Amino acid sequence: MYIAMNRFRVAKGREQEFIDIWKNRDSQLEQVPGFKEFHLLQGPSDDTATMFVSHSVWNSAEDFGNWTRSEAFRAAHANAGGSRDLYLGPPQFEGFDVVI
Known about the structure:
Distance between the termini: 10 Å
Oligomer: single chain
Radius of gyration: 14 Å
């Protein structure tokens, strides 16, 4: 099993806008081979930002890699840059192989 996570620093006061973008997007994930589950996590806030993490679970790192190179991925991310001032920097990717 493989877990893929992206950390986002979202501008303070724009949290609901960020959540709504994720709620309303057509992720295409349910039709992707190897996809198991997805969660959007809200973390701590400071004076400027709130941390969010997209968390997806895959059968394997290969399945996740195939998703990132697919038409479904391009379609799901087609409008990702529309609210640039919403994000304080680019997302930070982390990938993990489940060992236990």
